[in-house]
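Dear Dr. H.,

I hope your travels went smoothly. While you were away I took the liberty of generating a structure for the chain from your last submission, since the lab meeting agenda had it listed for discussion. I wanted you to have the full record in hand beforehand rather than looking at slides cold. The sequence, exactly as received, is reproduced here:
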Amino acid sequence: MSNITFHKLSWLQMHRDCIELYQNKVKGIKVDIIVSIVRGGAIVSRIFSGLLDATPITNITLTSYKGIKKLSKPIIIEEPETDFTGKTILIVDEVSDTGATFEVALDYFKKKKAKKIYTLAPYIKPHTTFIPDFWQVSYDSWIVFPYEIRETYDGFVKLLGSAKHAEGKMLEIGFHQWELDAVIIE
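The corresponding predicted structure, in token form, is as follows:
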């Protein structure tokens, strides 16, 4: 684990990055509907829905795991029921890490006869195979989003072998004790 670095985003930084992305790259585009890649894209989609004048949001759900086994590529487990024919859509996720989720989603929506498809993720990784049309920041570290308290804690317990070490690591990367108090079960 010593070579893994972590970058904990604050709510404020995430919101600022989304606002700057909108102002610098997205403002002025016309979108009929936002497609949120859930779960990660849900919050970012809501932010951009407001910025794009209350553009409606629908969801697509993909997974990269079947049980505990990592799949070679993500699969769609929940499809939107919306008719995309002739519409301009914006596919949103929070990060393009490997790019595989975006690639599967884009292939799916290309078959839906949309007029135009844009992609957006505020964050990308330098090694991603898919660069969204709109992105703001590239991080070469593990991004810890502000809503990932439970997942981060559980992951650190498994990785570090104890609740005490997990708590220490979370404090070290920028979580507050009051956040940890919500998820630590004694």
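Two observations you may find useful: Residues 11-26 form the longest helix (16 residues). Residues 149-183 form one domain.

With kind regards,
E. W.
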